[in-house]
Amino acid sequence: MARRSDTKRLLTFVLAVLAVTLAGSYGLAALRGNEADKPLNVTVVIKSVSKEMEFWQVLSEGVHAAAKEFGVNARVVGPQRETDIDVQIDMLRQVVREKPDVILLAAADYNRLAPLADEIDKAGIPLITIDSGVNSEVPRGFIATDNVEAGKKAARKLAELLEGPSQIAVISYVKETATQIERERGVREVLEPDGRFEIVGTYYSNGDENIAYETTKELLREYPDLKGVVGLNEPSSVGAGRAIKDMGRGGEVLLVGFDSSVDEVRLLEEGVIQATVVQRPFNMGYLGVKTAVDLSAGRKAPASTDTGSIVITKANMYEEENQQLVFPFK
């Protein structure tokens, strides 16, 4: 009987402790307003939401995939065109007023967006940059391609393909964007020391395929001995490729581009584009959201993450490991 009585007293004690613990937990949750149960609100400000820019569409898919996996409320906003820098600035100021938990930013201009980073910091909102950085120490993380190295990859491939002394043109996009500055730097660091090559200039398409097309046609007329072109983003590469094809110079003027799209794949298959440096925009979007989750949970995140790039040619574009990179739009 004494042993049964002792067991009852022990059970009563355990239940009492459990009741107090549960009551305390409930009270703490009530005092916090159930903040722990609220999903993280993340706003992602990109350079362009245009459906014509497949790079940004794929990056946005990465954002939404991570948001679903981690239970985050994620919203993607941005101007229609990468050159709409003032529009992006106004949008970012509105986002700051809305006070999300974290802001992810792909800056349309390396210098002009820098003061906005300070405004975000003063508002107490963590800032993470993706794809394109800003001239500021404020961001808590940077997730992007190593664009200097990617530019070097494009230049090395073109140098490998060209035979003998050659004139080369660079078709870039938005002049003050960090990504284009770094890619051009990588291209020049490889080609300029090589006595075989003369870079006739860098020309800006403002992210517009038609401008790249007309610019390249004019270059082919002005420099009849032009042997190589480097396109530094998707519209610049496609526009340059169309011009080379329409001028009947395919296979004669060699083109190494950037990124992947339906049009670039077709130009690769046709032999108009010899190679393209493909990035991993899905990973940028996904890791951007994951980093936001980690920082909000008090976990450390890398200051910089290189999402990588790979040179794709007609010879390797259908290899299994390259399928998702080359055909993200399927």
From TrEMBL:
Its main location: other. GO terms for cellular component: cell envelope. One of its GO terms (molecular function) is carbohydrate binding. The keyword Signal applies. Keywords: Signal. Signal peptide: none annotated. Residues 51-300 form the Periplasmic binding protein domain. The keyword Ribosomal protein does not apply. It is found in: Cell envelope. Belongs to the bacterial solute-binding protein 2 family. This is Monosaccharide ABC transporter substrate-binding protein (CUT2 family).
